[in-house]
């Protein structure tokens, strides 16, 4: 074995670390992978990646992000999205995974992140067992990574196809494959794909069908159930430990809703005939969740004990069709796009408000926004009654927009005058100089820190001195990084907010002639609309933080 000279070793150690990366560890395990290979468990992945990160001089662990039970065929994963938020906030500039398949199995999207997004955001990416490091790779390494991404994508498609085939075969045999038994049933502990009667909830299901037969509407049935204190299906499942994740149901799931009642009434499984395959979705092929026609459902008769008879079910089915025909008069009026969809929230419960279409006897159409919680739980709801008309909301937004545009032009003029003063220019020049000096100090600190261990190894300093100096250098490094970040923020503030070219000013300047609202406008300009009291509207503009800061900075413009 060739001997490494002490001189070269010393030079290697004395080589300054150019940059210490704030590193994120990302770990993912899909349901399909769970339990199939011990090397892929969440704990094993985390241990392996942490060992790797701790061994790197130029990496400092920021946080560990875990997605357990999420497919790699898309990037809609909570921990991944949180990690990308931290990347965009500049908290992270390095991501380490065990291998490329843990990051993603869709080769197009994975390649887009590796080749476009991460270089753009200046993020280093490391896949340990694939020996892939964007800091050190050559073009041939990039080609190998692309090939591995293609293979990972093909593996995901193969797994998806095999899983779908097995599940379809089970459906055709009458085995129930849903994650949870329909309300009123529970899974047989000896045969998990077989439904048995739940003695606690089955009587409630019978009552629901009885009420509906008597002509009571879905929302009124939901109100009755809530007033009787009967837990919603989600709450009942949680109370009986039927969820793997111990998360307490929140939002709509905490109380009965008309839609829940409707799903029960329309579920043919309650007649003792398991009915599945109502939707289709293929993540690998990019096919979104799509409802299938009733004729395409997979129905197997006589699979379990019925809660209601088929005659009752079909009678209710005919009744629903008859009511739908009677209400058909409202459908002859053209549907108007809901440009406020997902933007309006009840101030009391925090949930999105629902748009309802009303048609008068003389044929005029009026859309209103209602609080769903209030409508379903009149006596129990803590929400106030709200009935916000769409025309009134549109007028309120246009009025607020005009005020915002006037404010924009006023602030823009004041800002331009302020930026032309000698004091402002001198302040920006000082920030630039301070930043340059701080970066020099950071480089010096890193060099001294790198040489410290060599001094200890050569006996120049003892262990006590080594630990003391190391602690001092690390503390100084943190202080310098904080100072640098503070200066960078001040610099970014000048370039992005205290500039006539800031996004907020440009956005409102473009809207100065707007008199008609569109979906694009709402999406671009409005973060959310909060309705309190009876119909008090608060509009949260997307650039409200910038506006507040700018207003304060120029000494107030209103």
The share of residues in helices is 40-55%
| CA radius of gyration | 31 Å
Overall geometry: globular
Provide the low-confidence segments as ranges.
1-14
Strand order of the largest sheet: 2-1-3-4-5
Number of domains: 3
Pfam families: Recombinase (PF07508), Resolvase (PF00239), Zn_ribbon_recom (PF13408)
Organism: Anaerotignum propionicum DSM 1682
Protein name: Site-specific DNA recombinase
Coiled coil: 463-493
Offer a concise description of the structure.
With 558 residues, the protein is of the alpha/beta class. The chain has helices spanning 6-14, 42-54, 78-88, 100-103, 107-121, 139-172, 202-213, 218-227, 233-239, 258-265, 310-326, 372-376, 390-419, 422-457, 463-497, 503-510, 519-525, 544-553, and strands at residues 21-29, 59-68, 94-97, 124-127, 132-133, 185-188, 191-197, 274-276, 279-282, 287-291, 298-300, 344-346, 354-359, 365-370, 387-389, 526-532, 536-541. The strands form six sheets. Strands 2-1-3-4-5 form a five-stranded mixed sheet, with helices on both faces.
């Amino acid at each position: 074995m060739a001997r490494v000279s002490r001189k070269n070793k010393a030079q290697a150690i004395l080589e300054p670390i150019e940059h210490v990366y704030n590193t994120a560890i990302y770990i993912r395990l899909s349901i399909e992978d769970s339990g199939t290979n011990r090397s892929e468990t969440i704990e094993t992945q985390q241990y392996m990646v942490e060992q790797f990160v701790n061994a790197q001089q130029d990496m400092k662990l920021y946080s560990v992000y875990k997605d357990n039970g999420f497919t790699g065929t898309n990037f809609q994963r909570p921990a991944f999205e949180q990690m990308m938020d931290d990347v965009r906030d500049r908290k992270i500039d390095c991501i380490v995974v065990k291998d490329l398949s843990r990051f993603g199995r869709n080769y197009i999207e994975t390649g887009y992140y590796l080749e476009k997004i991460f270089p753009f955001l200046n993020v280093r990416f490391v896949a340990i067992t694939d020996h892939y490091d964007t800091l050190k790779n050559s073009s041939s390494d990039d080609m190998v990574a692309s090939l591995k991404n293609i293979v990972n994508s093909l593996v995901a498609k193969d797994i998806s196809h095999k899983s779908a085939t097995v599940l379809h075969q089970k459906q055709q045999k009458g085995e129930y494959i849903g994650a949870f038994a329909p309300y009123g049933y529970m899974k047989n502990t000896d045969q998990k794909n077989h439904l048995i009667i739940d003695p606690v909830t089955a009587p409630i299901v019978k009552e629901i069908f009885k009420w509906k037969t008597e002509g009571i509407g879905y929302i009124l049935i939901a109100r009755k159930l809530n007033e009787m204190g009967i837990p919603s299906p989600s709450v009942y499942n949680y109370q009986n430990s039927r969820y793997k994740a111990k998360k307490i149901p929140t939002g709509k799931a905490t109380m009965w809703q008309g839609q829940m009642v409707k799903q029960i009434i329309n579920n043919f499984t309650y007649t003792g005939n398991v009915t599945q395959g109502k939707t289709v979705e293929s993540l690998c092929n990019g096919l979104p969740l799509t409802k299938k026609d009733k004729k395409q459902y997979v129905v197997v008769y006589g699979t379990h004990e019925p809660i209601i008879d088929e005659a009752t079910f079909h009678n209710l089915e005919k009744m629903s069709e008859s009511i739908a025909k009677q209400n058909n008069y409202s459908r002859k009026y053209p549907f108007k796009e809901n440009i406020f969809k997902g933007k309006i929230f009840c101030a009391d419960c925090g949930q999105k408000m629902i748009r309802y279409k009303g048609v008068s006897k003389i044929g005029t159409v009026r859309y209103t926004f209602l609080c769903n919680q209030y409508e379903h739980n009149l006596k129990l709801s803590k929400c106030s009654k709200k009935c916000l008309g769409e025309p009134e909301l549109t007028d309120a937004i246009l009025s607020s927009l005009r005020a915002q545009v006037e404010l924009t032009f006023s602030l823009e003029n004041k800002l331009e005058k302020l930026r032309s003063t000698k004091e402002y220019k001198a302040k920006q020049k000082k920030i630039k100089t301070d930043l340059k000096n701080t970066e020099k100090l950071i480089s010096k600190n890193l060099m001294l820190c790198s040489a410290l261990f060599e001094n200890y190894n050569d006996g120049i300093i003892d262990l006590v001195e080594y630990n003391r100096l190391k602690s001092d250098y690390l503390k100084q490094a943190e202080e310098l990084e904080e100072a640098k970040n503070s200066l960078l923020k001040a610099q970014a503030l000048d370039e992005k907010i205290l500039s006539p070219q800031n996004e907020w000013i440009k956005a409102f300047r473009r809207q100065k002639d707007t008199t008609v609202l569109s979906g694009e406008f709402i999406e671009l300009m409005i973060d959310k609309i909060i309705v309190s009291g009876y119909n008090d509207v608060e509009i949260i503009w997307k650039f409200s933080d910038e506006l507040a800061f700018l207003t304060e900075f120029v000494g107030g413009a209103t």
